[in-house]
Protein backbone atom coordinates (compact mmCIF):
# COMPACT_ATOMS: atom_id res chain seq x y z
CA UNK A 1 0.00 0.00 0.00
CA UNK A 2 1.28 3.51 -0.82
CA UNK A 3 -0.13 6.73 0.61
CA UNK A 4 0.72 8.55 -2.64
CA UNK A 5 1.82 7.32 -6.08
CA UNK A 6 5.36 8.58 -5.48
CA UNK A 7 5.68 7.20 -1.93
CA UNK A 8 7.35 3.96 -0.96
CA UNK A 9 4.81 1.09 -0.56
CA UNK A 10 4.06 -0.23 2.92
CA UNK A 11 3.74 -3.97 3.62
CA UNK A 12 3.38 -3.85 7.40
CA UNK A 13 3.40 -1.58 10.43
CA UNK A 14 4.50 -2.67 13.93
CA UNK A 15 3.48 -0.85 17.10
CA UNK A 16 4.35 -2.40 20.49
CA UNK A 17 2.81 -5.89 20.42
CA UNK A 18 0.37 -5.15 17.59
CA UNK A 19 0.90 -5.60 13.85
CA UNK A 20 -0.87 -4.35 10.73
CA UNK A 21 -0.29 -6.23 7.44
CA UNK A 22 -1.17 -4.72 4.06
CA UNK A 23 -1.97 -6.64 0.87
CA UNK A 24 -4.12 -6.41 -2.24
CA UNK A 25 -7.71 -7.64 -2.01
CA UNK A 26 -7.07 -10.81 -4.01
CA UNK A 27 -7.53 -14.49 -3.12
CA UNK A 28 -3.95 -15.51 -3.95
CA UNK A 29 -2.53 -12.75 -1.70
CA UNK A 30 -4.87 -13.82 1.10
CA UNK A 31 -3.47 -17.39 0.79
CA UNK A 32 0.08 -15.98 0.85
CA UNK A 33 -0.63 -14.00 4.03
CA UNK A 34 -2.12 -17.11 5.65
CA UNK A 35 0.95 -19.16 4.65
CA UNK A 36 3.34 -16.56 6.11
CA UNK A 37 1.42 -16.47 9.38
CA UNK A 38 1.63 -20.28 9.63
CA UNK A 39 5.39 -20.17 8.98
CA UNK A 40 5.71 -17.56 11.76
CA UNK A 41 3.85 -19.85 14.19
CA UNK A 42 6.04 -22.82 13.30
CA UNK A 43 9.27 -20.87 13.54
CA UNK A 44 8.58 -18.88 16.71
CA UNK A 45 6.51 -21.37 18.67
CA UNK A 46 3.94 -18.63 19.34
CA UNK A 47 0.28 -18.85 18.43
CA UNK A 48 -1.77 -16.09 16.82
CA UNK A 49 -5.08 -15.28 18.48
CA UNK A 50 -7.34 -15.03 15.43
CA UNK A 51 -10.31 -14.07 17.61
CA UNK A 52 -8.59 -10.77 18.47
CA UNK A 53 -7.61 -10.19 14.84
CA UNK A 54 -9.73 -8.56 12.14
CA UNK A 55 -9.76 -7.82 8.43
CA UNK A 56 -10.40 -4.31 7.17
CA UNK A 57 -11.17 -3.44 3.52
CA UNK A 58 -10.86 -0.19 1.63
CA UNK A 59 -13.90 1.57 0.17
CA UNK A 60 -13.52 0.17 -3.37
CA UNK A 61 -13.70 -3.54 -2.47
CA UNK A 62 -16.74 -5.55 -3.60
CA UNK A 63 -19.09 -7.35 -1.22
CA UNK A 64 -17.97 -10.70 -2.65
CA UNK A 65 -14.33 -10.12 -1.69
CA UNK A 66 -15.37 -8.85 1.74
CA UNK A 67 -17.15 -12.19 2.26
CA UNK A 68 -14.58 -14.57 0.67
CA UNK A 69 -11.24 -13.28 1.97
CA UNK A 70 -12.10 -13.41 5.71
CA UNK A 71 -13.14 -17.07 5.23
CA UNK A 72 -9.77 -17.87 3.61
CA UNK A 73 -7.84 -16.19 6.42
CA UNK A 74 -10.10 -17.48 9.16
CA UNK A 75 -10.38 -13.95 10.57
CA UNK A 76 -13.56 -11.98 11.11
CA UNK A 77 -14.38 -8.90 9.02
CA UNK A 78 -14.62 -5.58 10.89
CA UNK A 79 -15.20 -2.05 9.64
CA UNK A 80 -12.30 0.08 10.76
CA UNK A 81 -9.33 -0.90 12.87
CA UNK A 82 -11.32 -0.98 16.07
CA UNK A 83 -10.09 0.61 19.27
CA UNK A 84 -6.62 1.11 20.64
CA UNK A 85 -6.14 2.19 24.30
CA UNK A 86 -9.83 3.08 24.39
CA UNK A 87 -9.85 5.30 21.28
CA UNK A 88 -10.79 4.50 17.69
CA UNK A 89 -7.63 3.59 15.81
CA UNK A 90 -8.73 5.21 12.52
CA UNK A 91 -9.07 8.87 13.41
CA UNK A 92 -10.51 10.25 10.21
CA UNK A 93 -11.04 13.97 9.80
CA UNK A 94 -13.26 14.64 12.84
CA UNK A 95 -11.82 14.96 16.34
CA UNK A 96 -15.31 15.28 17.78
CA UNK A 97 -16.31 11.87 16.49
CA UNK A 98 -13.18 10.21 17.87
CA UNK A 99 -13.42 11.59 21.40
CA UNK A 100 -17.20 11.73 21.72
CA UNK A 101 -17.34 8.27 23.28
CA UNK A 102 -14.56 9.08 25.75
CA UNK A 103 -16.33 12.27 26.76
CA UNK A 104 -19.65 10.47 27.26
CA UNK A 105 -18.05 7.85 29.48
CA UNK A 106 -16.32 10.52 31.54
CA UNK A 107 -19.59 12.41 31.99
CA UNK A 108 -21.27 9.21 33.22
CA UNK A 109 -18.43 8.60 35.66
CA UNK A 110 -18.55 12.13 37.10
CA UNK A 111 -22.36 12.23 37.32
CA UNK A 112 -22.33 9.08 39.43
CA UNK A 113 -19.28 10.10 41.43
CA UNK A 114 -21.14 10.81 44.68
CA UNK A 115 -22.71 7.32 44.74
CA UNK A 116 -19.54 5.40 43.96
CA UNK A 117 -16.36 4.69 45.88
CA UNK A 118 -13.54 4.81 43.36
CA UNK A 119 -10.05 3.50 43.86
CA UNK A 120 -7.17 5.91 44.43
CA UNK A 121 -6.10 5.54 40.80
CA UNK A 122 -9.66 6.17 39.61
CA UNK A 123 -10.07 9.27 41.74
CA UNK A 124 -6.74 10.67 40.53
CA UNK A 125 -7.64 10.05 36.89
CA UNK A 126 -10.90 11.96 37.31
CA UNK A 127 -9.29 14.72 39.39
CA UNK A 128 -6.86 15.40 36.58
CA UNK A 129 -9.76 16.15 34.22
CA UNK A 130 -12.30 17.93 36.44
CA UNK A 131 -12.58 19.41 39.93
CA UNK A 132 -16.26 19.47 40.92
CA UNK A 133 -18.05 21.03 43.83
CA UNK A 134 -20.65 19.19 45.91
CA UNK A 135 -23.96 20.63 47.01
CA UNK A 136 -25.17 20.96 50.59
CA UNK A 137 -26.93 17.59 50.46
CA UNK A 138 -24.38 15.68 48.45
CA UNK A 139 -20.74 15.11 49.13
CA UNK A 140 -18.21 16.49 46.69
CA UNK A 141 -14.76 18.07 46.58
CA UNK A 142 -13.75 21.70 46.90
CA UNK A 143 -12.58 23.71 43.93
CA UNK A 144 -8.85 24.28 43.62
CA UNK A 145 -6.93 26.31 41.06
CA UNK A 146 -5.04 24.41 38.39
CA UNK A 147 -1.78 26.18 39.23
CA UNK A 148 -1.91 24.71 42.74
CA UNK A 149 -2.73 21.10 41.88
CA UNK A 150 -0.21 21.18 39.01
CA UNK A 151 2.64 21.81 41.44
CA UNK A 152 4.91 18.96 42.44
CA UNK A 153 3.91 16.92 45.48
CA UNK A 154 6.97 18.07 47.38
CA UNK A 155 5.68 21.64 46.91
CA UNK A 156 2.18 20.86 48.18
CA UNK A 157 0.47 20.08 44.86
CA UNK A 158 -0.83 16.86 43.31
CA UNK A 159 1.72 16.61 40.53
CA UNK A 160 -0.79 16.89 37.67
CA UNK A 161 0.51 17.76 34.24
CA UNK A 162 -0.42 20.95 32.41
CA UNK A 163 -2.26 19.08 29.66
CA UNK A 164 -1.97 21.68 26.89
CA UNK A 165 1.74 22.35 27.46
CA UNK A 166 2.45 18.63 27.83
CA UNK A 167 0.62 17.86 24.58
CA UNK A 168 2.52 20.59 22.70
CA UNK A 169 5.80 19.24 24.07
CA UNK A 170 4.99 15.75 22.76
CA UNK A 171 4.01 17.16 19.36
CA UNK A 172 7.27 19.15 19.24
CA UNK A 173 9.12 15.93 20.05
CA UNK A 174 7.49 14.25 17.03
CA UNK A 175 8.56 17.19 14.86
CA UNK A 176 12.11 16.94 16.18
CA UNK A 177 12.20 13.25 15.20
CA UNK A 178 11.08 14.19 11.67
CA UNK A 179 14.04 16.58 11.45
CA UNK A 180 16.67 14.32 13.00
CA UNK A 181 15.52 11.04 11.41
CA UNK A 182 14.36 11.85 7.86
CA UNK A 183 14.89 8.20 6.79
CA UNK A 184 12.44 6.83 9.34
CA UNK A 185 9.17 5.32 8.15
CA UNK A 186 7.06 8.06 9.74
CA UNK A 187 9.18 10.81 8.19
CA UNK A 188 9.01 9.22 4.73
CA UNK A 189 5.22 8.77 4.86
CA UNK A 190 4.53 12.32 6.09
CA UNK A 191 6.96 13.82 3.59
CA UNK A 192 5.30 11.99 0.70
CA UNK A 193 1.87 13.18 1.83
CA UNK A 194 2.41 16.77 3.03
CA UNK A 195 5.79 18.20 1.96
CA UNK A 196 7.22 16.25 -1.01
CA UNK A 197 9.12 19.24 -2.40
CA UNK A 198 10.28 20.97 0.79
CA UNK A 199 11.51 20.29 4.32
CA UNK A 200 9.46 19.80 7.47
CA UNK A 201 10.28 23.30 8.70
CA UNK A 202 8.89 24.78 5.46
CA UNK A 203 5.82 22.53 5.11
CA UNK A 204 2.43 24.22 4.94
CA UNK A 205 -0.85 23.10 6.49
CA UNK A 206 -2.55 22.42 3.16
CA UNK A 207 -6.20 21.78 2.51
CA UNK A 208 -8.05 18.70 3.68
CA UNK A 209 -5.16 17.48 5.85
CA UNK A 210 -5.64 15.37 8.96
CA UNK A 211 -5.87 16.97 12.37
CA UNK A 212 -2.93 14.80 13.43
CA UNK A 213 -0.71 16.62 10.92
CA UNK A 214 -2.12 19.96 12.03
CA UNK A 215 -1.20 19.07 15.60
CA UNK A 216 2.40 18.30 14.59
CA UNK A 217 2.59 21.73 12.95
CA UNK A 218 1.49 23.29 16.24
CA UNK A 219 4.45 21.59 17.89
CA UNK A 220 6.69 22.91 15.10
CA UNK A 221 6.02 26.47 16.32
CA UNK A 222 7.78 25.61 19.57
CA UNK A 223 10.75 24.23 17.65
CA UNK A 224 11.02 27.30 15.45
CA UNK A 225 11.12 29.61 18.47
CA UNK A 226 14.50 28.28 19.57
CA UNK A 227 15.93 25.92 16.96
CA UNK A 228 18.96 26.97 14.94
CA UNK A 229 21.62 25.42 12.73
CA UNK A 230 25.05 24.36 13.90
CA UNK A 231 27.40 25.44 11.12
CA UNK A 232 29.75 22.84 9.65
CA UNK A 233 30.43 23.37 5.96
CA UNK A 234 27.24 25.43 5.53
CA UNK A 235 26.14 23.60 2.39
CA UNK A 236 22.54 23.18 3.60
CA UNK A 237 22.12 26.49 5.42
CA UNK A 238 20.62 29.50 3.68
CA UNK A 239 22.11 32.81 4.73
CA UNK A 240 18.91 34.86 4.96
CA UNK A 241 16.08 32.40 5.60
CA UNK A 242 17.61 29.92 8.08
CA UNK A 243 18.45 30.65 11.76
CA UNK A 244 22.19 30.11 12.23
CA UNK A 245 23.69 33.20 13.89
CA UNK A 246 24.19 33.45 17.69
CA UNK A 247 21.98 36.55 17.87
CA UNK A 248 18.91 36.65 20.14
CA UNK A 249 15.32 36.25 18.92
CA UNK A 250 15.83 35.98 15.14
CA UNK A 251 19.15 34.06 14.80
CA UNK A 252 19.26 35.52 11.27
CA UNK A 253 21.28 38.33 9.67
CA UNK A 254 19.58 41.71 9.48
CA UNK A 255 21.21 42.65 6.17
CA UNK A 256 19.27 42.15 2.94
CA UNK A 257 22.08 43.17 0.62
CA UNK A 258 21.54 41.99 -2.99
CA UNK A 259 25.09 40.59 -3.15
CA UNK A 260 24.61 38.41 -0.08
CA UNK A 261 25.44 34.76 -0.94
CA UNK A 262 22.52 32.36 -0.91
CA UNK A 263 24.23 29.60 1.09
CA UNK A 264 26.47 29.86 4.17
CA UNK A 265 28.98 27.58 2.41
CA UNK A 266 29.96 30.58 0.27
CA UNK A 267 31.10 32.35 3.44
CA UNK A 268 33.39 29.50 4.56
CA UNK A 269 36.84 28.99 3.03
CA UNK A 270 38.55 25.68 2.28
CA UNK A 271 40.44 25.71 5.60
CA UNK A 272 37.05 26.09 7.41
CA UNK A 273 37.56 29.75 8.33
CA UNK A 274 35.25 32.63 7.49
CA UNK A 275 35.77 34.42 4.18
CA UNK A 276 36.32 37.83 5.76
CA UNK A 277 36.57 39.58 2.38
CA UNK A 278 33.13 38.33 1.36
CA UNK A 279 31.55 39.16 4.71
CA UNK A 280 32.87 42.72 4.70
CA UNK A 281 32.23 43.24 0.99
CA UNK A 282 29.60 45.80 0.03
CA UNK A 283 29.52 47.15 -3.51
CA UNK A 284 27.07 49.89 -2.47
CA UNK A 285 29.49 51.23 0.15
CA UNK A 286 32.46 51.07 -2.26
CA UNK A 287 30.64 53.06 -4.94
CA UNK A 288 29.13 55.48 -2.42
CA UNK A 289 32.38 56.38 -0.65
CA UNK A 290 34.43 56.60 -3.85
CA UNK A 291 31.76 58.82 -5.45
CA UNK A 292 31.60 61.12 -2.42
CA UNK A 293 33.60 64.38 -2.30
CA UNK A 294 36.31 62.74 -0.13
CA UNK A 295 36.72 59.87 -2.69
CA UNK A 296 37.46 57.33 0.04
CA UNK A 297 38.62 53.86 -1.05
CA UNK A 298 37.10 51.46 1.51
CA UNK A 299 39.53 48.69 0.49
CA UNK A 300 42.40 50.54 2.18
CA UNK A 301 40.54 51.17 5.43
CA UNK A 302 42.02 49.03 8.22
CA UNK A 303 39.82 47.50 10.93
CA UNK A 304 37.55 44.55 11.67
CA UNK A 305 34.71 46.62 13.13
CA UNK A 306 33.41 50.18 13.12
CA UNK A 307 35.47 51.43 16.06
CA UNK A 308 38.75 50.15 14.61
CA UNK A 309 37.94 51.72 11.23
CA UNK A 310 37.02 55.02 12.90
CA UNK A 311 40.28 55.09 14.88
CA UNK A 312 42.20 54.41 11.68
CA UNK A 313 40.43 57.25 9.86
CA UNK A 314 41.10 59.69 12.70
CA UNK A 315 44.76 58.72 12.84
CA UNK A 316 45.28 59.01 9.07
CA UNK A 317 43.24 62.11 8.23
CA UNK A 318 43.05 63.90 11.59
CA UNK A 319 46.21 65.95 10.94
CA UNK A 320 45.03 67.45 7.64
CA UNK A 321 44.27 71.17 7.41
CA UNK A 322 40.68 70.35 6.46
CA UNK A 323 40.40 67.48 8.95
CA UNK A 324 37.22 68.90 10.47
CA UNK A 325 35.48 69.11 7.09
CA UNK A 326 36.73 65.66 6.08
CA UNK A 327 35.39 64.00 9.23
CA UNK A 328 32.06 65.83 8.89
CA UNK A 329 31.74 64.32 5.41
CA UNK A 330 32.47 60.89 6.90
CA UNK A 331 29.80 61.34 9.56
CA UNK A 332 27.26 62.55 7.00
CA UNK A 333 28.09 59.62 4.74
CA UNK A 334 27.63 57.12 7.56
CA UNK A 335 24.27 58.66 8.38
CA UNK A 336 23.16 58.46 4.75
CA UNK A 337 24.22 54.79 4.46
CA UNK A 338 22.27 54.05 7.65
CA UNK A 339 19.17 55.74 6.18
CA UNK A 340 19.52 53.70 2.98
CA UNK A 341 19.87 50.51 5.02
CA UNK A 342 16.66 51.30 6.95
CA UNK A 343 14.89 51.99 3.67
CA UNK A 344 15.71 48.46 2.49
CA UNK A 345 15.03 46.65 5.78
CA UNK A 346 11.82 48.41 6.84
CA UNK A 347 10.43 49.86 3.61
CA UNK A 348 11.65 47.22 1.13
CA UNK A 349 12.93 50.09 -1.07
CA UNK A 350 16.45 49.78 -2.51
CA UNK A 351 18.26 53.13 -2.91
CA UNK A 352 20.83 53.23 -5.68
CA UNK A 353 24.30 54.70 -4.89
CA UNK A 354 23.84 57.67 -7.25
CA UNK A 355 20.55 58.58 -5.54
CA UNK A 356 22.22 58.23 -2.12
CA UNK A 357 25.00 60.61 -3.25
CA UNK A 358 22.43 63.19 -4.33
CA UNK A 359 20.77 62.95 -0.91
CA UNK A 360 24.21 63.28 0.71
CA UNK A 361 24.86 66.55 -1.14
CA UNK A 362 21.42 67.84 -0.17
CA UNK A 363 22.11 66.89 3.44
CA UNK A 364 25.48 68.67 3.34
CA UNK A 365 23.93 71.87 1.93
CA UNK A 366 21.37 71.91 4.74
CA UNK A 367 24.13 71.66 7.33
CA UNK A 368 26.16 74.45 5.71
CA UNK A 369 23.12 76.72 5.42
CA UNK A 370 22.20 76.12 9.06
CA UNK A 371 25.71 77.19 10.07
CA UNK A 372 25.31 80.48 8.14
CA UNK A 373 21.80 81.34 9.24
CA UNK A 374 22.46 81.43 12.99
CA UNK A 375 25.04 83.68 14.60
CA UNK A 376 26.12 84.98 18.02
CA UNK A 377 23.38 87.44 18.95
CA UNK A 378 25.04 89.82 21.45
CA UNK A 379 27.96 90.26 23.81
CA UNK A 380 26.37 88.24 26.61
CA UNK A 381 26.11 85.20 24.40
CA UNK A 382 22.39 84.53 24.76
CA UNK A 383 19.38 84.36 22.49
CA UNK A 384 15.89 84.84 23.95
CA UNK A 385 13.58 81.98 23.09
CA UNK A 386 10.16 82.52 24.71
CA UNK A 387 9.63 79.83 27.28
CA UNK A 388 12.70 78.03 25.92
CA UNK A 389 15.94 79.89 25.34
CA UNK A 390 19.40 79.06 24.20
CA UNK A 391 22.73 80.85 23.90
CA UNK A 392 25.24 79.74 21.27
CA UNK A 393 28.60 80.97 19.98
CA UNK A 394 29.34 80.51 16.28
CA UNK A 395 33.08 80.57 16.87
CA UNK A 396 33.28 77.88 19.57
CA UNK A 397 30.01 76.00 18.87
CA UNK A 398 29.42 76.15 22.65
CA UNK A 399 26.28 77.57 24.21
CA UNK A 400 23.61 77.25 26.84
CA UNK A 401 19.85 77.00 26.98
CA UNK A 402 17.09 76.74 29.55
CA UNK A 403 13.39 76.91 30.34
CA UNK A 404 11.01 78.69 32.70
CA UNK A 405 7.74 77.09 33.82
CA UNK A 406 4.71 79.14 34.88
CA UNK A 407 1.05 78.31 35.39
CA UNK A 408 -1.90 79.86 33.53
CA UNK A 409 -1.75 82.95 35.78
CA UNK A 410 1.97 83.45 35.22
CA UNK A 411 2.97 82.23 38.70
CA UNK A 412 6.45 80.73 38.84
CA UNK A 413 6.67 76.90 38.97
CA UNK A 414 10.27 76.16 38.12
CA UNK A 415 13.32 76.99 36.03
CA UNK A 416 16.16 74.91 34.61
CA UNK A 417 19.16 75.50 32.40
CA UNK A 418 22.30 73.87 31.02
CA UNK A 419 25.39 75.85 29.99
CA UNK A 420 28.67 75.44 28.12
CA UNK A 421 27.50 72.48 26.05
CA UNK A 422 28.55 71.71 22.47
CA UNK A 423 25.97 72.25 19.72
CA UNK A 424 26.67 72.10 16.00
CA UNK A 425 24.43 75.13 15.35
CA UNK A 426 22.16 77.62 17.08
CA UNK A 427 19.16 75.90 15.58
CA UNK A 428 20.25 72.58 17.14
CA UNK A 429 20.58 74.37 20.48
CA UNK A 430 16.98 75.58 20.14
CA UNK A 431 15.82 72.02 19.50
CA UNK A 432 17.85 70.74 22.46
CA UNK A 433 16.20 73.42 24.62
CA UNK A 434 12.77 72.21 23.54
CA UNK A 435 13.74 68.63 24.40
CA UNK A 436 14.99 69.75 27.85
CA UNK A 437 11.71 71.59 28.53
CA UNK A 438 9.53 68.60 27.58
CA UNK A 439 11.66 66.31 29.77
CA UNK A 440 11.30 68.76 32.68
CA UNK A 441 7.50 68.81 32.24
CA UNK A 442 7.38 65.01 32.43
CA UNK A 443 9.74 64.86 35.45
CA UNK A 444 7.62 67.38 37.38
CA UNK A 445 4.36 65.58 36.69
CA UNK A 446 2.83 68.22 34.39
CA UNK A 447 0.02 66.77 32.26
CA UNK A 448 -1.14 69.74 30.15
CA UNK A 449 1.75 71.78 28.73
CA UNK A 450 1.96 74.80 26.42
CA UNK A 451 5.51 75.38 25.11
CA UNK A 452 6.58 78.61 23.38
CA UNK A 453 9.69 79.13 21.25
CA UNK A 454 10.82 81.98 19.02
CA UNK A 455 11.79 79.57 16.17
CA UNK A 456 8.89 79.19 13.75
CA UNK A 457 10.92 76.68 11.69
CA UNK A 458 11.29 74.46 14.76
CA UNK A 459 7.55 74.66 15.45
CA UNK A 460 6.77 73.60 11.88
CA UNK A 461 9.19 70.67 12.14
CA UNK A 462 7.59 69.49 15.38
CA UNK A 463 4.14 69.65 13.76
CA UNK A 464 5.37 67.79 10.69
CA UNK A 465 4.87 70.70 8.29
CA UNK A 466 8.57 70.79 7.38
CA UNK A 467 10.93 67.90 6.73
CA UNK A 468 13.72 68.02 9.36
CA UNK A 469 17.29 68.01 8.12
CA UNK A 470 19.80 65.35 9.08
CA UNK A 471 21.13 67.25 12.11
CA UNK A 472 17.66 67.49 13.69
CA UNK A 473 16.12 64.06 13.18
CA UNK A 474 17.48 62.46 16.36
CA UNK A 475 16.44 65.36 18.63
CA UNK A 476 12.95 65.60 17.13
CA UNK A 477 12.55 61.85 17.51
CA UNK A 478 13.39 62.24 21.23
CA UNK A 479 10.86 65.06 21.59
CA UNK A 480 8.12 63.04 19.92
CA UNK A 481 8.83 60.05 22.16
CA UNK A 482 8.96 62.04 25.41
CA UNK A 483 5.82 64.08 24.76
CA UNK A 484 3.77 60.88 24.48
CA UNK A 485 3.95 60.71 28.29
CA UNK A 486 1.91 63.93 28.55
CA UNK A 487 -1.87 64.14 28.28
CA UNK A 488 -1.68 67.23 26.08
CA UNK A 489 1.11 69.40 24.71
CA UNK A 490 1.05 72.40 22.38
CA UNK A 491 4.16 73.91 20.81
CA UNK A 492 3.67 77.43 19.42
CA UNK A 493 5.68 80.38 18.16
CA UNK A 494 6.17 83.58 20.16
CA UNK A 495 8.47 86.59 19.52
CA UNK A 496 11.65 86.78 21.54
CA UNK A 497 10.69 90.07 23.15
CA UNK A 498 7.65 88.47 24.80
CA UNK A 499 9.66 86.68 27.46
CA UNK A 500 12.58 88.47 29.08
CA UNK A 501 12.77 85.92 31.91
CA UNK A 502 14.08 83.10 29.80
CA UNK A 503 16.48 85.49 28.06
CA UNK A 504 17.94 86.23 31.46
CA UNK A 505 18.21 82.51 32.27
CA UNK A 506 20.16 81.93 29.04
CA UNK A 507 22.48 84.80 29.83
CA UNK A 508 23.16 83.41 33.30
CA UNK A 509 23.89 79.81 32.28
CA UNK A 510 26.03 80.87 29.32
CA UNK A 511 28.20 82.83 31.72
CA UNK A 512 28.51 80.33 34.61
CA UNK A 513 28.00 77.01 32.80
CA UNK A 514 26.85 73.75 34.39
CA UNK A 515 23.33 72.46 35.02
CA UNK A 516 20.98 74.35 37.37
CA UNK A 517 17.34 74.11 38.44
CA UNK A 518 15.02 75.87 40.88
CA UNK A 519 11.56 74.72 42.00
CA UNK A 520 8.81 76.80 43.67
CA UNK A 521 11.24 79.58 44.74
CA UNK A 522 12.91 81.48 41.93
CA UNK A 523 16.52 82.81 42.19
CA UNK A 524 16.85 86.39 43.39
CA UNK A 525 18.29 87.67 40.11
CA UNK A 526 15.16 86.42 38.25
CA UNK A 527 12.43 87.76 40.57
CA UNK A 528 12.07 91.27 39.13
CA UNK A 529 11.79 90.00 35.56
CA UNK A 530 9.13 87.45 36.49
CA UNK A 531 7.18 90.09 38.40
CA UNK A 532 7.31 92.41 35.39
CA UNK A 533 5.89 89.69 33.13
CA UNK A 534 2.75 89.40 35.31
CA UNK A 535 2.44 93.19 35.97
CA UNK A 536 3.41 92.99 39.68
CA UNK A 537 4.94 96.23 40.99
CA UNK A 538 7.00 94.60 43.77
CA UNK A 539 10.76 94.92 43.29
CA UNK A 540 13.66 93.47 45.27
Helical content stands at: 40-55%
Q: Tell me the span between the first and last alpha carbons.
A: 105 Å
Report the structural category.
alpha+beta
CATH superfamily of the largest domain: Ribonuclease H-like superfamily/Ribonuclease H
Coarse morphology: elongated
Could you say how many structural domains there are in total? 5
Helical run tally: 18
CATH topology of the largest domain: Nucleotidyltransferase, domain 5
Give the DSSP E fraction (strand runs of 2 or more residues): 5-15%
Radius of gyration: 39 Å
Low-pLDDT parts are 127-135, 372-390, 535-540
Largest sheet properties:
4 strands, antiparallel
Output the keywords.
540 residues; alpha+beta; four-stranded antiparallel beta sheet; 18 helices; 10 strands; 10% strand
Structural overview:
The protein has five domains: 12-84, no CATH class; 91-160, no CATH class; 165-226, no CATH class; 283-371, no CATH class; 388-533, Nucleotidyltransferase, domain 5 (2-Layer Sandwich). The longest helix is centred in the middle third of the chain and has 25 residues, at 323-347. It is elongated, with a radius of gyration of 39 Å. A hairpin with a 2-residue loop joins β3 (83-84) and β4 (87-88). It contains 18 helices and ten strands. By secondary structure, the protein is α+β, with helices and mostly antiparallel strands. α14 packs parallel to α16 (473-482). The N and C termini lie far apart (105 Å). The strands form four sheets. The chain has a four-stranded antiparallel sheet with strand order 5-6-7-10, sandwiched between helices. A two-stranded antiparallel ribbon has the order 1-2. Strands 3-4 form a two-stranded antiparallel sheet.
Amino acid sequence: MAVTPSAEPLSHVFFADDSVLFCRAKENEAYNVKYLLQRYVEGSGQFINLDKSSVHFSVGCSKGLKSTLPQILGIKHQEGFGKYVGIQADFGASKKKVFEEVRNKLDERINGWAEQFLSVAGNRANYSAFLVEGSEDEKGCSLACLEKVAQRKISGGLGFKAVIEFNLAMLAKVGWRLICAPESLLAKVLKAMYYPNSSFLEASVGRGTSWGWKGILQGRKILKSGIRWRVSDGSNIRVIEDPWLPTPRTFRPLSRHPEMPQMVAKLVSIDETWEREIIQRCSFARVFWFGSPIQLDVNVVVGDDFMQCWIWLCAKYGKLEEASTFMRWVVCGLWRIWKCRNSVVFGKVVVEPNVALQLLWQQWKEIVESDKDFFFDNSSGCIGDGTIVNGWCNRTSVGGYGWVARDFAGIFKGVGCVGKVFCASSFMAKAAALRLAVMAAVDRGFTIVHVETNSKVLVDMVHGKLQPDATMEAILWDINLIQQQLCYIEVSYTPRACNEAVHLVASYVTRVGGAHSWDEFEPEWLFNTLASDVNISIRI
